[in-house]
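Dear Dr. L.,

I hope this message finds you well. Following up on our conversation about the binding site, I have prepared a predicted three-dimensional model of the protein together with xanthosine-5'-monophosphate. For your records, I am including the exact sequence and ligand specification that went into the calculation, followed by the structure tokens. Please feel free to forward this to your student if that is useful.
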Amino acid sequence: PVLVVDFGAQYAQLIARRVREASLYSEVVPHTMPVEEMLAKQPQAVVLSGGPSSVYADEAPALDAALLEAGVPVFGICYGFQAMVTALGGTVERTGLREYGATRASVRDTTSTLFNGQPDEQSVWMSHGDSVSEAPEGMRVTATTPGAEVAAFEDDERKLYGVQWHPEVLHSTFGQRVLENFLLRGAGLEASWTPANMAEELVEQVREQVGESRAICAMSGGVDSSVAAALVHKAIGDRLTCVFVDHGLLREGEAEQVEKDFVAATGVDLVVVDAKERYLEALAGVSDPEEKRKIIGREFIRVFEQAARDIVHDRGDNEHPVEFLVQGTLYPDVVESGGGTGAANIKSHHNVGGLPEDLQFSLVEPLKALFKDEVRQVGLELGVPEGIVWRQPFPGPGLGIRIVGEVTAERLDVLRAADKIVREELTLAELDREIWQCPVVLLADVRSVGVQGDGRTYGHPIVLRPVSSEDAMTADWTRLPYEVLAKISGRITNEVPEVNRVVLDVTSKPPGTIEWE
Ligand code: XMP
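The resulting structure of the complex is given below.
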């Protein structure tokens, strides 16, 4: 593998992802791992990540020079670059010249290993307070930036390379090329890693973790939990049971899609719990958004716990108790909640509406190091239906938080009918991949006057909320073509009698969130 040594940056997984993009297999290891252990993994190349530390800090993680003498090609990034310098006898200084954000690098040699085939000026993204003032002996300085005399170096003899900036972020225009040049030219590796390999590797890891035990998976029908379920199913077969809670807050056809398409494609053992009545009762008379969310989350836990007990009971197999809970946590979820191992739970809770604190299961999170597009690739590889793989995000609390006001069976029917039309028309206009998601919201407590067929109407407005986004942290409203909007509006007001007005939400996030509640 290509080992990415994590010096405590939130970039380590991103570097690993970039290595995968270069079609090479990568593994992230902590900087605390002894060099012998790293070498035991027989790395073909090593990338040292950036880190939040200054090489001067007391607790600064040091780099064992033995790693640089093992004959394995090494590429240092940012902190990793400086750690190399310190280990090899160069000088890192507090120059007072700090560089944060985008700057320009001047490349001295565009025929060098790292910069081959690139322009001599390139935009790079930096984040450093210390700078290398003197390169270690034998290192050829190949680039400089306004704040760093030594911004890149190479030694083809010892196969040691480094850059002060972050080639893994998109703001570094030639970043991927620099990394690939290291991997393919510097280390001489052959690009051969594919999504198929990635799926296989993940399946193997799950097999190892779960052993002979049973696992259950809380299925939402979304991409992440579906792909996680498919992976785990491939690993442990029918020792996995998926539980899908139909809380009645789903969109038209959603439960059926999971029951039919997903099961048909993957053959997983699926238990569908019909909890519609239970949810309607619990939500009766409640219109405060936070209260609704709490109720939906609480009921989910209860239904899910009961389902888990039933599974153990039904299988009557005490040799293999349900020990594991499968979650479709992705890497951005981990980052969002502050990184680290424990942090992953925060978003997982959020995903399913909250799992109990004293959860009796160990978590299996096979997608934890991946990004959404990679998850989609793995999903396609495992035969998860395209309709699920390309699904837009849908919140766990579902339509419950898209009815502004009390949630009732009638209102859910109205919203479901309008939502179905919107989804049909967006699909027809081939806009699904262009928009991140398009919540359809029923303003159940608002009425307005209209006229239809010579008569007065007094109906409810439907809000369209199409958004474009990279990661849902920020978003902009999508400029849908007028014809598409007109068609949607016409169909909703004609086909859904309770609705006499369709309005478009033209707010970005911030200040508006994507959902209305
Ligand atoms: P907001 O409304 O916060 O939404 O801008 C950001 C993204 O998260 C989704 N969302 C949720 N997903 N459980 C989920 O699994 C939730 O409780 C939840 N609330 C919002 C939302 O659809 C959007 O994609």
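In brief: The radius of gyration is 27 Å.

With kind regards,
A. P.
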